[in-house]
Specification:
5-stranded antiparallel sheet; DNA Primase, Chain A; single chain; DNA primase DNAg catalytic core, N-terminal domain; alpha+beta; 640 residues; 4 domains
Length: 640
């Protein structure tokens, strides 16, 4: 268990904009920062970070909280894992009350897979550098490819000994559990129950997750036997989903954000060579065809992708249709084709960094123009094939969500294709109309299914909703002003928080998180502790954190120049704090009294003259007096 002293040091060190900025491209807007949600697919930013409050709020998914909460939501960390990640980022030594067992018996299943993968990366890396076999075979290969010691160390490159059980035997000997060795794909179980190494005799490329931890491996054989697959990659597991991972992204994300561009290559070696040449904003799709999830991952940091192809024309043709997905996600795509016989790895090693950069700058083309050129060359003068090219190019343009950008491409392509611009626009509109009809039909079909199999919803009564709203307003005011001193006529020398708690002593809260919040606040007030919002932002109770962030965060902020521009004054609740605080308290009390009166009226109707009628009538009259006194108070003190 991490000590409170360590947790306090971590919390003091956190810059929430800096932390979340490693995962989301943020832009300053007023006092806050905004970006695209990493939790949902959106094109208009609704993700907000407040550095002053130390919170984030994602209005598209409803998630919110502190930097710790963000890591737990995005990376599925446990609370201690998130704290340790932050401690590592800010170079804070973690003190624990119980000595941590590094390994082996970890209760958390996901963490156990992480620990095994980290051990494997260390084993393969040391095998590469320290063993005679690793140096003669693996290290020699990497050196021949031109990789420096710094690159080898940075990417944790390794070598798996060419023995059946070198890794598995050592891992079991050191106490790592068979279950996790097999599930991670590092070991394979024989029919007789024993384990053997999946990657024997291969150079190893560890695949790092978004936060830098090793989650999988790619192993390349150095043998020429055609029956042996060139690459073997980790199978899918709880910590590794290849469609959601880009090789090298952990090392590239800062450069991608700084350069506002991401270079996309095909292989591990391409990433390493280009990165080593000083062009660090480069990633690869990690042994799989490019997926929508990977495109969205890049889209967190930049809207610009440059594809670096080798000279294989057949491979280029096969990948053209897949790249339409990038357009569909609203990203800008450029393409660079290297001379025959070269890929990014060989070309950068051949010509050097400066010439490589110059070549890219001079030869990059917009994907639509590039695709048009490629398909036209293939079609030649055949009119039928040229008509197919036109249709295919317009299909790609139709996927671009930005209509202005699509119009520009239509104009450019009309010159290249030597066809009237209006004809292309007509074809584009037909395709868009067909798509909208198809979407409408699918929507109607889903609605029909929903009608056949309705989900029963139990509506929340209006009075209960009002209760919840008014109770949440009390929480909001406690968060914002609870630690401020009262200086009102007739009331002084106390703080707003304790005053509100005392005034609400006779009120029963019904909204569960609000009730727990008030109980926590009351207990601390009784102990003489004056609370601020940070305690609730970092509270272990997720419902309290969600409630706190929802009440503190706002999607819209008023411009600093609002009054100068519009000459419209916006009411400020802090101008008359007495009216704000007492108004909230007495509106809630009035509503609670109204509910009691409703219940008494129901009981009176059911009593029908029995012995309880007089008692109920007396209670009813007393509550009516209470209601009137509250109404009078609201009218005279709050409104006037």
């Amino acid at each position: 268990m991490i000590t409170k002293t360590t947790i306090d040091r971590i919390m003091e060190a956190i810059d929430i904009v800096e932390v979340i900025g490693e995962f989301v491209q943020l832009k300053k807007r007023g006092a806050n920062y905004v970006g695209l949600s990493p939790f949902s697919n959106e094109r208009t930013p609704s993700f907000t970070v407040s550095p002053a409050k130390g919170i984030f709020k994602d209005f598209s998914s409803g998630k919110g909280g502190s930097a710790v909460t963000f890591l737990m939501e995005l990376e599925k960390f446990t609370y201690p894992e998130a704290l340790k990640w932050l401690a590592n980022k800010y170079s804070i030594e973690v003190e624990e009350t119980v000595e941590s067992h590094e390994n082996k018996e970890e209760e958390n299943h996901r963490e156990s897979l992480m620990i095994v993968s980290a051990y494997a990366a260390k084993f393969f890396h040391e095998s590469l550098l320290d063993s005679e076999e690793g140096q003669n075979i693996g290290l020699s290969y990497f050196k021949e490819r031109g990789f420096t010691n710094e690159t080898i160390k940075k990417f944790e490159l390794g070598y798996s000994p060419d023995q059946w059980e070198a890794f598995s035997g050592q891992a079991l000997k050191e106490g790592y559990q068979e279950e996790f060795l097999v599930e991670s794909g590092l070991s394979v179980k024989r029919d007789n129950g024993t384990l053997y190494d999946r990657y024997r005799g291969r150079v190893m490329f560890p695949i790092h997750g978004f936060t830098g931890r090793v989650i999988a491996f790619g192993g390349r054989t150095l043998k020429t036997d055609k029956n042996v697959p060139k690459y073997v990659n980790s199978p899918e597991s709880e910590i590794y989903h290849k469609s959601n991972v880009l090789y090298g992204l952990y090392f590239a994300k800062k450069a991608i954000r700084d350069e506002d561009n991401c270079y996309l290559v095909e292989g591990y070696a391409d990433v390493l060579s280009v990165h080593q040449a000083g062009i660090e904003n480069v990633v690869a799709s990690s042994g799989t065809s490019l997926t929508v999830e990977q495109i969205r991952l890049i889209g967190r940091f930049t809207k610009n992708i440059t594809i670096l192809y080798d000279g294989d024309a057949a491979g280029i043709k096969a990948s053209l249709r897949g790249l339409d997905m990038i357009l569909e996600e609203g990203l800008n795509v450029k393409v660079v084709l290297f001379p025959d016989g070269h890929d990014p790895d060989s070309y950068v090693r051949s010509v050097g960094t400066n010439a490589f950069k110059n070549y890219i700058d001079q030869n990059r083309k917009d994907f639509i123009i590039y695709k048009t050129d490629i398909l036209l060359k293939e079609a030649g003068t055949d009119p039928i094939k040229r008509a197919e090219v036109i249709r295919e190019v317009v299909e790609s343009i139709a996927k671009i969500p930005d209509s202005i950008k699509a119009s520009v491409f239509i104009k450019d392509c009309s010159h290249i294709l030597q066809i009237d611009e209006r004809a292309l626009l007509s074809e584009l509109n037909k395709m868009r109309l067909a798509k909208s009809k198809k979407d409408a039909q699918q929507g109607a079909k889903q609605a029909e299914v929903a009608e056949q199999y309705p989900v029963e919803e139990i509506p929340l009564e209006k009075s209960v909703k009002e209760d919840y709203t008014q109770e949440k307003e009390i929480i909001r005011l406690l968060l914002l002003y609870g630690s401020k001193m009262i200086d009102w006529d007739g009331i002084a020398n106390t703080y707003i928080g304790p005053f509100m708690i005392a005034e609400l002593g006779d009120v029963e809260f019904e909204h569960t998180p609000s009730k727990r919040f008030v109980e926590l606040y009351s207990n601390e007030v009784e102990n003489g502790v004056l609370l601020d919002e940070q305690l609730f932002i970092h509270h272990p109770d997720k419902e309290i954190v969600d409630l706190t962030v929802t009440l503190l965060a706002t999607k819209y902020t008023l411009s600093e120049n609002w009054y100068e521009m519009h000459k419209i004054l916006v009411p400020d609740e802090q101008v008359n704090m007495k009216a704000t605080i007492l108004g909230a308290i007495f509106h809630l009390k009035k509503h609670k009294v109204g509910k009691i009166l409703d219940n008494l009226r129901t009981e009176l109707q059911n009593a029908e003259g029995d012995e309880n009628t007089e008692i109920l009538l007396t209670q009813y009259m007393q509550m009516k007096k209470v209601e009137k006194s509250i109404s009078d108070y609201l009218g005279s003190v709050i409104i006037k």
